[in-house]
TrEMBL record:
The lineage of its organism: Bacteria, Pseudomonadati, Pseudomonadota, Alphaproteobacteria, Hyphomicrobiales. GO terms for molecular function: DNA binding. It comes from the Bacteria. The keyword DNA-binding applies. InterPro entries: cNMP-bd_dom, cNMP-bd_dom_sf, HTH_CRP, RmlC-like_jellyroll, WH-like_DNA-bd_sf, WH_DNA-bd_sf. Residues 144-218 form the HTH crp-type domain. This is Nitrogen fixation regulation protein FixK. Keywords: DNA-binding, Transcription, Transcription regulation. GO terms for biological process: regulation of DNA-templated transcription.
């Protein structure tokens, strides 16, 4: 499996041919750096699709009262605004939570590759279905108590980072703030801190020096009611 996180994820939908890999590598060749707290993109730039190749980002919306609500995290290998070509879906922004590297893809060229190569077409469909599935799970997660909600979010990050080789058997780097987590969970940073302390007291997690350690992964998943099939990393199945 290729080392590039984007190709690693796409091949979860099925093996790409050598020609398909080369075409995608050419497409994502350029990179730019986005500073932490800056926007990667404002929805509505319909001629571009954005690929995060390094760092942690998020999709978010700013409410009228100034509060930010994060609706999903964006990790290396994730596409943004793949389907933002119409009047719908233009209320979200993508912001860098840490310094990020980003490839700006020409939408027209990506569409050409989808039309020409069945493996790329299959993979982009998988990206679409996966994001819809993950969005549904985030809605469900909002109904859980704060401790389960936080545990579920950490489990999701853990599994997603494992897939691209950025998490080991029990830990992963998490260089974001408690405020960022609070904006994803819909609670204050103070509440996040209380919940983190409770999970730490139960021996379920530690979070020091921007690294989360999960001593007993299965116990945390059980608390979170976390079942990873919604992330679709097993592809389409038979």
């Amino acid at each position: 499996m290729p080392d590039d996180p984007f190709l690693q994820k796409l091949e979860r939908a099925g093996k790409l041919s050598d020609e398909e890999r080369v075409e995608l590598q050419v497409l994502i060749k350029g990179r730019r750096t986005v500073l932490a707290r800056d926007d990667i993109a404002i929805s509505g730039s319909s001629d571009r699709v954005y690929l995060v190749t390094g760092g942690f980002a998020c999709r978010y919306k700013t409410l009228q009262n100034g509060n930010r609500r994060i609706v999903s995290f964006v990790l290396p290998g994730d596409l943004c605004f793949m389907h933002d070509t119409g009047a719908f879906g233009r209320d979200l922004r993508v912001g860098a939570l840490t310094p990020c590297t980003v490839a700006d893809l020409a939408r027209s060229r990506l569409i050409e590759l989808i039309a020409r190569y069945p493996g790329i077409s299959r993979a982009i469909w998988w990206v679409t279905l996966r994001e819809l599935s993950r969005a549904r799970e985030w809605i469900v997660n909002d109904a859980r108590p704060a401790n389960q909600r936080l545990a579920h979010t950490l489990c999701e990050l853990f599994v997603c980072l494992q897939v691209i080789g950025l998490a080991d058997e029990h830990s992963f780097g998490l260089p974001i703030s408690q405020t960022d987590l609070g904006d994803a969970l819909g609670v204050s940073a103070v509440h996040v801190n209380r919940v983190l302390q409770a999970l730490r007291a139960e021996g379920l997690i530690t979070w020091t020096n921007h690294r989360v350690t999960i001593p007993d992964v299965e116990s945390l998943k059980e608390l979170a009611e976390f079942e990873p099939s919604y992330l679709c990393f097993d592809g389409y199945g038979p």
